[in-house]
Amino acid sequence: MSVPADIRDITMADAGRNRIEWAWAEMPVLLGLHEPFRAQQPLEGLRISGCLHITTETANLARVLQAGGAQVVLCASNPLSTQDDVAAALVRDFAIPVHAIRGEDTETYYRHIAAALDHRPQITLDDGADLVSELHKHRTELLEGIVGGTEETTTGVIRLRAMAREGALRYPIVAVNDAHTKHLFDNRYGTGQSALDGIIRATNILLAGRTFTVVGYGWCGRGLALRARGHGAHVVVCEVEPLRALEAVMDGYTVMPLMDAAARSDFMVTVTGDKHAIDRAHFDVMKDGCVLANAGHFNVELNLEALAEMAVECTRPRPEVQEYRLANGRRIRVLSEGRLVNLAAAEGHPAAVMDMSFANQALAVAWLARDGRGLSPQVHPVPDEIDREVAALKLAALGVHIDSLTDQQREYLSSWGEGT
């Protein structure tokens, strides 16, 4: 049976299948859900459209959803994050329609989102809220049939909460990003390792002894700062939120205004989720050779339009490096066109940490399939029992055993009468 798809090259499927299976071995929690989903069919007959990074880990999530009875269609959530061999394997070996090509232009990107929406989804999976946004802007005729959706990024959750505040959100969304077993691990350990992996692959520049500035000290920023310090870099943190800035100070980092950091940094990486975190004024004072990267969801964190206007020349000395030369001779090096550096210049988060994130996704989708019709059109947290189940399954997979409370201890924690 022919599978409707728009991918680069179906002959890449063998390589993609090998990498999917390699990641599968690192995802014991998701693997553990596969057979129960197959046996219980919690998603039987449901149409699911996912706007996600088309990676080996996403492929394994799609396998579990498909095993649970869902009809899954995928498109890319970032033009530079698609792994073309994985897309080919999903189409050939799993009969999952994929509309994603690495390096696709903006027109193709939105054409692929439209193709995913043509599936008339009942549940949406989003990574940045582009699918939800397109539904509410241009495909409103589909909204009535949607049960619910999930969102797995900080940026996407911010967009969706803004929609909910304005009364624009028309169906319930589960903020998978906010699950403890997602943001405490995926954002911190996943981004920390994979963003540095992308920076090192793209540049092959030694980090030890260099000044490495992290712009934004959320969970992703915390992980990035931790890993950069582990490589021997002098880590600077720039933050606008006083509590986070204080935490960075207490964690042992140098905290300063972004203008001061721009003048001394060898590397600057944005993880803010906001627009133009690094702007024209910062470009004006940057050191010659400063490397800029973005580990937030959208490339708007760097004002690349302003940089292009300031530059007298732009060259590509390495595949993932654009070098902008300014009129005074200074060079500013931008990685992966300001897209997510961990996916554009490397392979994204390690499978072992995505295991928890995607287990949350799968269980949240099953919960929506069961209970979503009774939820209000708001952004909802992942139920605590799902979060705890994922943590327990991960500990078991790691061979770690923990204690449990006695009946007496439970009683004490739920009472107020006993004191000194």
From TrEMBL:
Domain S-adenosyl-L-homocysteine hydrolase NAD binding: 187-348
GO cellular component labels: cytosol
Principal localisation: cytoplasm
Record key words, sorted: Cytoplasm, Hydrolase, NAD, One-carbon metabolism
InterPro entries recorded: Adenosylhomocyst_ase-like_sf, Adenosylhomocysteinase-like, Ado_hCys_hydrolase_NAD-bd, NAD(P)-bd_dom_sf, S-Ado-L-homoCys_hydrolase_CS
Bound cofactor: record note: Binds 1 NAD(+) per subunit.
One term of GO molecular function: adenosylhomocysteinase activity
Keyword Metal-binding part of the UniProt annotation: no
Known EC number: 3.13.2.1
KW Hydrolase (keyword) present: yes
Sites where the protein binds NAD(+): 153-155, 187, 216-223, 239, 295-297, 342, 349
Reactions mediated catalytically: S-adenosyl-L-homocysteine + H2O = L-homocysteine + adenosine
UniProt: substrate binding residues: 55, 127, 152, 182, 186
Purpose of the protein: May play a key role in the regulation of the intracellular concentration of adenosylhomocysteine.
PANTHER family xrefs: ADENOSYLHOMOCYSTEINASE
UniProt similarity note: Belongs to the adenosylhomocysteinase family.
Protein name according to UniProt: Adenosylhomocysteinase
Organism annotation: Thioalkalivibrio denitrificans
Gene from which this protein is expressed: ahcY
